[in-house]
Amino acid sequence: MATKGKTIVLGITGSISAYKAADLAARFTKDGFRVDAVFTESAMKFASPMTLRNLTGRPVVTTMWELSTEFSVEHVALSEAADVVLVAPASANIIARLANGIADDMLTCTVLATKAPVIIAPAMNDNMWANQVTQDNVAKLKKRGFIFVGPAYGRLASGKMGLGRLTELDEIYGVTLQVLGKKGDLAGKNIVVTAGGTQEPVDPVRCLTNRSSGKMGYAIAEAARNRGAAVTLVSGPTSVTKPAGVKVVDVKTAEEMLKAVLDATKKADALIMAAAVADFRPARASGSKIKRRELGDLTLKLEKTPDILEQARGNFIRVGFAAESDNVIANAVDKVKRKGLDLIVANNITEKGSGFGTDTNRVTIIDSKGKAEELPIMSKYEVADKLLDRISSLLKKK
Ligand code: PMT
Predict the structure, then answer these.
(1) CB within 8 A of 398, min separation 6: which ones?
(2) How many angstroms separate the CA atoms of 162 and 151, rounded?
(3) Which pLDDT tens digit goes with each residue over 214-270?
(4) Distance of CA 227 from the midpoint of ligand 1 (Å)
(5) Domain containing 43: what range?
(6) Protein residue closest via CA to atom 13 of ligand 1
(7) Are residues 171 and 84 in the same domain?
């Protein structure tokens, strides 16, 4: 991940969801970030500084007046070290204090003094969130450039349903990576990625589809977002969580994917077709469910779907994937030339840990001249980063 080695100051405030900050801290630490947790007085009633200390392997700040921590000498040291300040969960109280420039503990001092971006993930009772005074404070902070994630609608500490829940950790995590990657090598670039398999209807119940999980395309979308790109992800049906900070266009059929890709590439710098588009569809889909008892054998007449890569042309980098089971490189070289692509990613789908549904992939990246770069097996996110390295250098030459 390009953002490794950066410092996230994680502010934790008094909310029943404070324990969830531990999950976030563990995730960021695992990714290689330095996480410095700062507790407010009331946060310590809900979550344990010891847990955060162990998960981050770093001193945890619980007061401004403790001489033995490395931050207490200079009460703004954390504000300077921060690449981003993330307050999660953020109570109504901290939002009010930040909106009014109060600086009476380590977290408020850090936020007031920092030049780093500040992300706020609110969590509170729904009436407290809806209260005009909170909304005015939020508007004030937004105007000053603070980034808000959530809150979400759902079950609250009071037991009732409402808007005020700490939003999903995946979303907070995604937005934080996006903010950290804002000035990455793909900043200012529009990248369109396709993912998943298409579904071609046979009747209202059945369809023709394939085994694509969407993981490869989603990993590319996330990696591009984390390097500063504005990403549009055209996605076939999948169960993969939608990445935060990415524009997702849901489609089902190849025809719908074609329309979405042609629309999204009007302003694109690159198109990456990781989707497994069905090559054929029933020539005529039945409007009502085909009944087994009314038929002997069933013969389906199939016709070709539109070739999206063929039709999506313009002043942008075009990258295809080639899912192959034999003559992998030769077939991919043929495809890159025939379709006039800038790059193709050859995927041996019969290899263990590679291809459909896996978390890892083993690919060879082939350029327009047929020159191949063979990569070892790695996570789909790492494959995405390697591919984006190649796209980034092609974009620089444009
Ligand atoms: O989703 P996962 O489970 O993570 O699996 C990843 C993957 C195996 C699906 C992915 O790595 C991959 O190889 N995707 C391309 C699969 C494929 O359709 O390959 P193909 O050789 O049939 O097609 C070649 C290229 O043409 C692809 O970029 C495809 O998106 C594109 N295509 C295909 C058919 C069509 N009608 N229009 C197209 O644009």
Answers:
(1) 317
(2) 10
(3) 999 999 999 999 999 999 999 999 999 999 999 999 999 999 999 999 999 999 999
(4) 24
(5) 7-180
(6) 323
(7) yes
